[in-house]
Amino acid sequence: MEGKRILVHVCCAPCFVAPYQHLKEEGFSVHGFWFNHNIHPYTEYRKRLETVQEFAAAENIPLIVKDEYLLEKFLRNATFRESDRCRMCYYDRLKYAAIVAAKGKFDYFTTTLLYSKFQNHELIRQVGEALGREYKIPFLYRDFREYWKEGIALSKERNMYRQQYCGCIYSERDRYLGKK
Q1: Are the C-beta atoms of residues 142 and 110 closer than 8 Å to each other?
Q2: How far apart are CA 45 and CA 52, in angstroms?
Q3: Are 179 and 46 in contact (CB under 8 A)?
Q4: DSSP codes joined into one string, 89-102
Q5: Low-confidence residues of the chain, pLDDT below 50?
Q6: Which superfamily, per CATH, for 5-177?
Q7: What is residue 62's predicted lDDT score, i.e. its pLDDT?
Q8: Strand 5-9 relative to strand 108-111: parallel, antiparallel, unpaired?
Q9: pLDDT score for 8
Q10: Which of 108, 138, 94 is nearest to 31 (CA)?
Q11: DSSP-derived secondary structure letter, 139
Q12: Bridge partners of 77?
């Protein structure tokens, strides 16, 4: 993979830190991409974006930011489809990552969503691979969960803002009310 350019959709800095290190060690030229219209409320969105920007600046990681807080769009898409909201959310974010990766002539695209033990990896893989075929850019599936503890330690070491829920208002509810 030496010299291969990869665009990594970044959901947050703590989920990016360990995958970034490992992709870099493999010889990838890593570029970050931020588009997370699902994160609510706005103050949470800003904290996560600022933390990603600080990490990217500290590591000299090129970062493309699609800074769009699309609360209404997200809620319109999720309303009455709450049980399928993650599919829609994965699709929206990975679609833009695939578009940017294809236009930027990257060799691959992937996502830090694959770092989380709480995400549906098979669904992310299906969505990523389908979008990869559509936009003619390979989706690199990696099970970054093996770096879970390492990523936590690295993010704490760097004093990164560490959120306690995936991002959407439904996941915040589930986190604090204990629903699944």
Answers
A1: yes
A2: 11
A3: no
A4: HHHHHHHHHHHHHH
A5: none
A6: HUPs (3.40.50.620)
A7: 98
A8: parallel
A9: 98
A10: 108
A11: B
A12: none
